[in-house]
Amino acid sequence: MGGGGKRLVKQRERLWKKNPHCENCGIETILPKHCPRGKKGRIIAQDHMATIQHKYSRLHPDKRRTMILDHENDRRHFLWCYKCNRLDNDAELAAIAAEFWKNINERNGNLETNI
Predict the structure, then answer these.
(1) Do 23 and 73 meet the contact criterion of CB atoms below 8 Å apart?
(2) pLDDT value for 1
(3) Could you read off the pLDDT of 85-94 as tens digits, one per residue?
């Protein structure tokens, strides 16, 4: 789990101060600095921990183009809880994997997917 650079940490805190609730599910979040830590001092992620959700993930094909075209008042970052962020990421990766295997099967002449 990445904590983000100083810029994202500050941005997460600014968003949290405006509204500490997840913009996806509405649960009240906590900042990572208030989460318990493991033996090596690493944050133990909590489902209600505040995270930054990007409008476009790094895997989104339009991310680069939209970064150039987005205007200042068009939000690209949102405060989400860790659970919603993780579920969204898992769904995106599953869709990419399904598309990958669909393409592989079509190339091999097998139209059935084994996912």
Answers:
(1) no
(2) 46
(3) 999 988 888 8
